[in-house]
Amino acid sequence: MTPPSSNGPSLAARVAERLHVEPPWEVYAEEAVRYEVHLNGTSVELVRGPVAVQGIGLRVLRPHDGAVGAGFQASTDLSDAGLRAAASDAETIARHARFPAASVDLPSRPSATVPATEVLDRRLWDDPASTVDRYLEALRQSFHGRKGAAVSFGSVRTARVRTSLANSSGLDTGFDHTTVDLELAVKASGGPEGPAPGEYWVTDSLRRLETAGLDRSVEAWCRYAQDVRRAVAPPSGELPVVLPAGVLSGILPQVVGFRASGSARLRKLGLEAGSALAAPSVTISDDGAYPWSPGSGPVDAEGTPSRRTSLVERGTVRATLYDSLHAAAFGERSTGNAVRAGFGPRPWLKFTHNAGVGSTTLVVTPGDGGTDPELCEAAGDGVWVQQLGWANPDPISGTFGGEIRIGYRIRNGKLSEPVRGGIVGGLVVAPPKKPSLLANVAAVGSTSELSEVLASPALLVKPLTVAGTSR
Amino acid sequence: MDPTVPALTEFEGEIEKALGRLATKTPFCDVMVQQGTGSSVLIDSKATNIAAAPRMRGAAFRAWSGTHWVEASTSDLSSGGVGSTVELLERSLSRVTRPGTPPGTAATTRGERATKPSKPVSELGADAMIKIVKDARDWALAVPSVGEAQVRLSWADESRLYLNSAGARCLQTVSRVHYVLVPIAMENGRAEADYLIRGGEGGQELLAGLTEEHAVETARASKALLTAKTPPAGEMTVLLDPTVTGLFAHESFGHGTEADQFTRDRSYLKPILGSEVGPSSLTISDDGAFPGAWGSIFFDDEGHPGQKNKLVDAGRFTGALHDRETAAAFSTHPTGNSRRSDFLSRSFVRMTNTYVEPGPLSLDELVAEAKNGVLLEHGSSGIEDPLGGQMQLKVNQGHLIENGKVTDLVGSMALSGSVLRFLREIRGVGRTVGEFAIEPGYCGKGHSDYIPVGTGGVHLLSRAVVGQA
Prior knowledge:
Distance between the termini of chain A: 58 Å
Helix content of chain B: 10-25%
Radius of gyration of chain A: 24 Å
Helix content of chain A: 10-25%
Largest interface: A-B, 92 and 84 residues
Number of helices of chain B: 9
Oligomer: heterodimer
Shape of chain A: globular
Largest sheet of chain A: 6 strands, antiparallel
Strand content of chain A: 35-45%
Structural class of chain A: alpha+beta
Structural class of chain B: alpha+beta
Number of strands of chain A: 21
């Protein structure tokens, strides 16, 4: 299996040369090769590869009636006839579409300010089969000899992607990147008759496949799966709750990421600059070049260089995120926040989506809350949520709420018995002076962790509503 | 189909040739070729967005290596593209192939089926689609406090051709239509939204529900949520409306009946197959042949026809969903539930349209029986827990039930608890109110591989944990 070719002009540039459309236009191209191994237990059930796809997304921008019509079409048919058909679709759509901006400036050739971004696992790029095999062997070794816990099923799905962009303003850029989707169900069982089997379900989107630290991770996964077996229902009430990055990553990007966007501002759902959104200990930025994040790249989905934008400083809203289109609607400049497919499960297949605006990687600045044990000490009597089934974030109402798949009771400032079931939920953001997850942050941990498209320390929220079955 | 898109059969010759070549290297191989066309219009008070379905097609080849399946996919259906994909698959087969055929029986089905709407939505054209969604938006925006309204109308025609080395040939085209209206009510920095969603297989007849009456009703429901009370928290009597019951049937129960979870020992339901799990008034089905339903398929992606399978029959857990491999493991037949998201994704055991069948009780009888608790309405999402057997569902709103009466409106909630306990504690299964509806949705297996599925049901009375969400 060979990676996408790096010889000569990029796919976007080659397609652009054959396009016969009026400016402004933009070509976003991807050449992706996927390699996947699916497991039943730790045995191989299915090997998939190469799964090869190459295609382009063509966008044309046509002013009419005081607005701009954005026409977009994606195609895997890169023949002359295929490109003509895609261009015809895009023009037809542009005639009917309307966006409230007089004109749109697409980014031109990036200057030297394009950040170097860590998004490519070189070993995975050069030899995905061996890299995945090595990882799976390390995984088997890590589980070997562990009593009562094993993988029941899983998959490692990797992709090598060459992304390129060209537009009528002279942009011709691109980058290579790797993606990894990891899914493992760790099952705990055995022992005397009694508790039912327990499971800890690991899902993650990564940029690289590393074996360093795997032993420690497997040990933790097995412990959580075992703890599920003896977990009890959480208490009910307004309680101090600690949410680590793995839980917050299912909440903050979806709600804060949308509310901070030009799209939300346009619809009067945006965060108002200068307003108090969060506790003073909370500072949040958006970083398009955060190392190894699935949301990172040297340029955004329109080719604007990635950058860091401060969204919330010490609890106060500072800025809004823009792509070219939404920037034009407000007379602003793009902040490098054009994204395709939002938080979709296919970071390797973006050419089928038109560019929109959104957060890339949200970064919560570490605070002085200290270590996890110190956060528990500050909580006193509460709940540590290790994993939610799904947080159900709602960008419009700003709510979230999900079932605790595994968590721990905090008693007298220390982690105590495991809890499972019940619901933790409430508002993520609320009007000023109203309680919410962000307004109620009582302490921000001192060590950050990257989980999906959020880098954050654990947050102590005091209180959050917990619906359980006992007090 | 878009006349400028070549029919899949134009590629069939090359595909068949490649499959024939592959068949000389393996005891069994198959291929699924796919392409789609479609468009959608999304409108709100600020912008009109139109999207065309990607001009995308491709093929997924699968072969049995002697110990496991190997697959390769390509978006290049030229003879060169298909040839090199099969060549790479042959190379991996030459490294690992051992004697032996794959588990189960290969389908030998041959057929061509298509949804044939008398008035396809594709014939409406962009201007007519824009008018329909603009009207719906304007009806919603006319309701006081509704500051924004988003409406999306889409249609998609998807063709799949399945061929295997045992002689199966299944060609199907499914036409799906979907719309959603989300009026957003805003006051004092608070925003709330209810929704109206419909979808199915067919044509313009599916748009009949996008009326002024329904748009205004939905917009008023959004406005009402601005003053909804905080929902109760804790374990209590719950009455699920048909949308929430459908989510329960799919997420909480259905995923545990996917028999690949049985072969992995990853289903809380496996040990109790054949046991009584609920009252005799409870029947849960998965039906890939439900006429006009969003999740219906003519054939699955192993060449088996879509069909109705009873999962729970009169309170007894009687059936699981199978592909050829799991059917062999449990000495039964494939149930037409092997589905790929697309040519870039693997085939899994998946649901189609999953629902609770109507029971004997009216809504008034169920509310009276509940006496005190909460009515959960407008299910919006859920997630499975196939091993742990816990349920998690989210609903957009609800009403308190006090002294046998439906009273105050409450805001969005999540529902949690043990599925088996919930089933055991069912105190009533409702009748159909109006026409039995299958709601459209998308299902992931885990967090990926999304496919269209339908859910449905009737009111269901039981007990669970509820909390604000």
